[in-house]
Amino acid sequence: MPTQDYILEMHHISKSFPGVKALDGVTLRVRPGTVHALMGENGAGKSTLMKCLFGIYSLDEGEVIFDGKKVCFSSVRDAIQSGISMIHQELYPQIYLSVMENIWVGRLPVKYGVVDYKKMYADTAALLRELEINIDPKTVVGSLSVSQMQCVEIARAVSFHSKVIIMDEPTSSLTGNEVEHLFHIISKLRSQGIAFIYISHRIDEILRIADNVSIMRDGFLVGEWNAKEITNDFIISSMVGRKMDQLFPKRNNHPGEVVLELEHFTSPVSNCFRDISLTLRKGEILGIGGLVGAQRTELIEAIFGIRKSTGTIRINGREVHIPSPIQAKRHRMALLTEDRRRSGIFGLLSVSENMAIANYKSYIGLLGALNYKHIQSDAQQGVKKLKIKTPSLKTMIKNLSGGNQQKVLFARWLLTEPEILLLDEPTRGIDVGAKYEIYCIIAELAEQGKSIIMITSEMTELIGMADRVVVMCEGRLTGELTNEHINETEIMRLSSDFSSKLENVCGRDIPEVEK
Amino acid sequence: MKSKINHISSLVTQNVMFVVLIVLVVVIAVLQPTFLSLRVLNDLLLQNSTRLIIACGMSFILIGGGVDLGAGRAVGISAVIVASMSQSILYPRLFYPNLPELPIIVPILIAVLACTVIGVINGILISKLNIPPFIATLGTQVAVYGLNSLYFDMPPNTSQPIGGIRDDLTFLGSGHLGFVPVVILIAILVIAVCWFILKMTRFGRNIYAIGGNKEAAVVSGIDVQKTTIAIYAIGSALFGLAGVLECARSGGATNNYGNMYEFDAIAACVVGGVSNTGGVGKIPGMIAGVFIFGIINYGLTFVGVSPYWQLVVKGIIIVTAVGLDVRKYKKEK
Fold first, then answer.
1. Are A111 and B222 spatial neighbours (Cβ–Cβ below 8 Å)?
2. Which of B202, B216, B332 sits opposite A108 (nearest CB)?
3. How many helices (H) and strands (E) does chain B have?
4. Domain annotation covers residue B25
5. Which of A86, A159, B141, B237 is the residue whose CA sits 20 to 30 A from A475?
6. Contact A114 B215 (CB under 8 A)
7. DSSP 8-state assignment for residue B87
8. Does A93 sit within 8 Å of B205, measured CB to CB?
9. Structure confidence by residue, pLDDT tens digits, B122-138
10. Min distance A102 CA to chain B CA atoms (Å)
């Protein structure tokens, strides 16, 4: 028998979706007892690759060899039982059940037909002790911190005798100490021969924990390196090193006086955004860059009054208090949320209702009845102005393409005549052609003197659209870039400006909040 | 000191239903000290034994993330079936004039089995055809009432109340073993078995997992479909048993037996800390919930409060208890 070099091999994996080649001949090979980092920008194909591994997507080409045998998992469950576990960025535990039941659910130990709580407790305690996780197996999972939940998930993966554990952005919501603990556990399991695929954006962490680094870009594998042989800058240039292949409209906006001002804007929730001070000018497009988990969404939702905050907001120089979206609307603000389906569209309502819904009060006519004629004519105008492609105004909005849905949402907020627009990932899930049209809308609004804050995780978009860029990392503003300084390397550097600074700022351990 | 207060306050929010129950008993006992007597306890247990059994069935279903709006109609059809087959042959108006006296266990089993079938149908509609529980059981509930009425209307009975129930069946409803009423013993037995299943068996723990997070339960390797069907089957079987006891207690049945019982059961469960969205709930809490309403009915009458006021108090308690309960799992935004 040949000695087994790799525990997991994915050979020449390709996967296409209508119009996009998401993966193009990607090869990833993982040795037992190593941590293999998988890096790339959002949309580079990392999660598609993992979904192919777990059988959530079928492969167009290529094969997966696990533990020396060709495999083809039919489901996540199938993979877990074979020895590959994934710990998701967003954990899905049974929050009402205890730690031990979360670990053993689906295969609870049974004696004489009765759940053997003693054995379950003993096994769990032994497992947690071995991993040096200090949690009582009887604790209800809902009362744990995110990092503790993550530890429980790791323990669960170990309990399945997993040979490969995949971690997707495991540190995105952890504090410095918690990251140390996680790394300690990973090192320990690595020395026992378990392999990790570690998906992360955080270069400093990767360089510390990983043995090998694979970098993906646009569905290709750029290459694989030994982590000791590469540097921070090398990784960044490999991740972003591509030509700008998207065109942006020419902008003729002229930023004027300051309209919105934040001072020491801080969330009362721990590990959220803190001490944010920034300004927004009339007719300016301000981009907010950063990684997933940088708390950008939380920040603008707080500006819009959806989340609580402390600190000062000034609009046109006057201090204002915005406890809810109702007040935000009164101050002529509009918010396009990140998750269009969940908090944007009303899928079962018509296009025209979706447009009018934030502005019903201006359509109230005789006896409080809505003036549908007025709504129709406004909707008709919106469709024309924003070039929305829809069979009719009565069409249910869920039947439109993502780009057209987004345009309807723009139209909705434009009817409220906003002065400040907060756009959270305005082109997410929209195809390239429609993206350009969205960019045109944004550019034109700025030209008309509207002030725009735009969050985007796409580098090119940030560089191509913003007059000025601020970058967030772990809830803090790490820098501001203007003019020629807006480039990928700088944004990337500020985006991953992590714990070293954090610890300097705090200068102390962040205590666990016990309740 | 502060942590002690925190501890106590969390203990209170964790066990709202017991606090409410104790407060109720104390208030009524102060107003009318004779309330604290064995006779009152006996009456309370008697009145609430079938409710406890129905609430047990409902607990399974609610914890599993569902609901059953057909509980009352299942009680009704079970009562009519068992009554129709266990009349004394000396009774002048027989449902089945030519039916010999069956061993009493036969009609009971037929009635409970009929309800179990209803539960299996509900389970299949919900887990295989993905019909929301609210709608599925609303539909079957109406159909079951229709079937029950058709059966009840068959000649020679033609919609007359069924009476003349044999003594060996009424013994279950009003007899005593020693000095303890049989119906109370049955309720205690059912409660013990349900507690055991929910707390001690793998099947029981899987119910919590399914109600708490169905997707995660699927990934964890739980057979969600089978378990869901079993949940509704068990629930309906218990409703059927309650129907048998209702018939035994009253010595007869009509097709309107059990009407609206599901709302009492759901109210008792949610007040007792069983989550109406699934995944949470314990049998002792549910028992407290049943007795809170039992004591409102009995105790407030005992101290002379108008029955209409009792309804108002009931409504307030439902909303308050659940309002407090929601706080337990609330997360800061």
1. no
2. B202
3. 14, 2
4. no
5. A86
6. no
7. B
8. no
9. 999 999 999 999 999 99
10. 9
Counting one residue from chain A and one from chain B, the pairs whose CB atoms sit within 8 A come to: 70
B282 touches chain A (CB under 8 A): no
Answer whether B14 touches A (CB < 8 Å).
Answer: no
* A447: its two tokens: 């030209």
Query: How much is the pLDDT for B62?
Result: 96
The answer as to whether B325 is a domain residue is no
**CA pair distance A453, B4, nearest whole angstrom:** 48
| Strand intervals (E) in chain B | 176-177, 180-181
Please answer yes or no on whether A77 and B220 come within 8 Å at the CB atom: yes
Residue B301 in domain: no
Residues with Cβ within 8 Å of residue B163, at least 6 apart in sequence? B87, B91, B93, B251, B252
Instruction: Look at chain B and report how many structural domains it folds into.
Output: 1
- The ipTM value here is 0.71
With CB atoms and an 8 Å threshold, state whether B221 touches A106. Answer: yes
User: What residues pair up with A479 in beta bridges, in sequence order?
Assistant: A471
Please name the member of B202, B204, B216 whose beta carbon is closest to the beta carbon of A94.
B216
- Report which of residues B146 and B7 the model is more confident about: B146
CB contact under 8 A, B213 and A115: no
Q: Give the mutation candidate from B210, B213, B326 for the A interface (greatest A CB count, under 10 A).
A: B213
Q: How many CB atoms lie within 10 A of CB B159?
A: 10
* CB pair distance less than 8 Å for A96 and B280: yes
Domain containing residue B75? 49-258
Record: contact B222-A105, CB cut-off 8 A: yes
Cβ-nearest to A115 among B202, B209, B216: B202
Measuring CA to CA, which residue among B114, B117, B108, B118 is closest to residue B143? B118
In the block, residue with structure tokens 């199938």: A78
A8-17 vs A61-66, strand pairing mode: antiparallel
First to last CA, chain B: 29
Q: Give the amino acid at A31.
A: R
pLDDT, average across residues B321-326: 75
Q: What is the pLDDT of residue A513?
A: 40
B window 199-258, beta carbon within 8 A of A: 200-202, 204-206, 208-209, 212-213, 215-222
Q: What's the whole-number mean pLDDT along residues A212-219?
A: 88
Task: Tell me phi and psi for residue B30, to 5 degrees.
Answer: -70, -45
Q: Are strands A35-39 and A212-217 parallel, antiparallel or unpaired?
A: parallel
Buried b (16+ CB within 10 A) or exposed e, B30-41: eeeeebeeeebe
Q: Tokens 């609610």 — which residue? A: B62
Strands A164-168 and A195-199: parallel
**Nearest-5° Cα angle at A286, A284 to A288:** 175
B295: in domain: no
Residue of B201, B209, B333 lying closest to A113 (CB–CB):
B201
pTM as predicted: 0.74
Q: Which residues of A39-62 are buried (b: 16+ CB within 10 A; e: fewer)?
A: bbbebbbbbbbbbbbbbebebeeb
- Distance from C-alpha of B231 to C-alpha of B279, rounded to nearest angstrom: 13
Residue ranges with strand state E in B199-291: none
State the Cα torsion B202-B326-B216-A185 to the nearest 10°: -90
